Amino acid sequence: MYRSSSPATAPVPTVDAQHAKRWWALAVLSLTQLVVVLDGTIVNIALPQAQLELGLSDGQRQWVVTAYALAFGALLLLGGRIADYWGRKRTFMVGMLGFGAASVFGGVAQSGMELIIARGLQGAFAALLAPAALALLTVTFTHGKERNTAFAIFGTVAGTGAAIGLLLGGVLTEFADWRWCLLVNVFFVLAGLIGGLLFVTESKAPGENRYDWAGAVTVTLGLGALVYGFTLAEHGWAELDTIGFLALGVLLLAAFVVIESRVAQPLLPLRVVLHRVRGGAYLIQAVIGSAMIGGTVYLAFHLQIVLGFSPLTAGVASLPMTVVIMFCVPFITKLLPVIGPRPMMIVGPLIAAVGLFWLSGITADGNYFTQVLPGLVILGVGMANLFVPVQNLALIGVAPEDAGAASAMANSASQIGGSIGLAVFTALYSTAASAQAELDPTAPLAAFTAGYSVVFASAAVAMLAGAVIAAVFIRGRKEELMPFGEASAAVHVG
């Protein structure tokens, strides 16, 4: 006898479709994080070829990296607010589309200015993507073991992104063309858009919210003027335009602070950065950004231009630092609850400085295994000691309503530090290289290594300053500095 199935008697599905959808969403969001981090380094290996083809000056070459980091860092806070207020999935999808379009624009660029503009647009849309992805992850996995697993996967992808970028950049530049370092993003974007449509659920912050446009404009213009001023310093620190842009940047950032202290819904609540430990963590992240972004760019130049490595070999030769970091992280994570974060935050920069000082000893006739590899290994050990605790310290004592701003500030500090650091390093490189070229015009490689050596030495000094910052700001009992319990920070490399 035939019996119809009513809703009450229909069999209950054995597979939790919603549960499976969450893990597919994690894959999509992790892919987004990979693209954002990867694009910070993928063009580094391609820069020598791009410079030759497009006729870039050394200043323009630097801006191919700086434009991405500066736009990304300066707009992250606004991007997080847009995601919360406008809708996180909507922001994610728009960010994906814009990032893909900017990548295509950069991939077909016919001049240095077009490439720089494209990289800036990539950074701007990445500033929408990154906070939207993190917010979506937060509301998709709300508690328990699954949340810890999701964040561990997300953090691991972020941690390997920089290394993948260097390696993929080398493969594409050597076997295809440097332009594919940008065009390859189209495949990631298509996967992200399809996955976003299928698996990501919309959410937004409750209540009536208002954008802090005055704060967004002043901080973006202020940081831009500051970085541009440092860029002009390669023509002279006492030049009127250099002083003018640096002064303008400082004034605009001062105006930003005044605005944030007065508006009802600030882009960056000042209480987030005025906390002693958090403020110290942000300063240290800026130092890390300057050393990592500036250092890896000039390392790529040395490997290819002076040592004559192919793009692929240069990409592989850049990996030991990241391998060492990933190897050390599990051990340092277990050690963290025993000794607390403060010793690591002081010792880490000191070890990293030793590695950078080692790299500063490069010569035109030196070799990779004695002059470069040991420095990368030592630098990796130092950075591992920083990456484990710094992310958690950047969020210590944060109220729930400030968590998004604090997280965005942590990432912004790294990107802005990298932008300013690279601008300063480029000015120092130009001065040292020009001085060496005047001494011996017949030895261009010696001029290059003289400039690179000054960059690595300057980055080492920055790391020493980071150790001092940690000693001054990261204070308190171990228990007070570890409210997060067992160390579980997501590791961000690069």
UniProtKB/TrEMBL annotation:
| Family annotation (Pfam families) | MFS_1 (PF07690)
Q: What are the recorded GO MF terms, alphabetically?
A: transmembrane transporter activity
PANTHER family reported for this sequence? BLR6921 PROTEIN (PTHR42718:SF46), MAJOR FACILITATOR SUPERFAMILY MULTIDRUG TRANSPORTER MFSC (PTHR42718)
Tell whether Zinc is among the UniProt keywords.
no
Q: Which GO terms describe its cellular component?
A: plasma membrane
Domain called Major facilitator superfamily (MFS) profile: residue spans: 25-478
Membrane-spanning segments: 23-43, 63-80, 92-110, 116-139, 151-172, 178-199, 211-230, 242-259, 280-301, 307-332, 344-362, 368-388, 409-430, 450-474
Q: Please indicate if the UniProt record lists Glycoprotein as a keyword.
A: no
Q: What is this protein called?
A: Drug resistance transporter, EmrB/QacA subfamily
The main location class comes to membrane
Xref: InterPro entries: EmrB-like (IPR004638), MFS (IPR011701), MFS_dom (IPR020846), MFS_trans_sf (IPR036259), Sugar_transporter_CS (IPR005829)
Provide the protein's localization: Cell membrane
Question: Keywords for this entry?
Answer: Cell membrane, Membrane, Transmembrane, Transmembrane helix, Transport
Topology in the lipid bilayer is annotated as: Multi-pass membrane protein
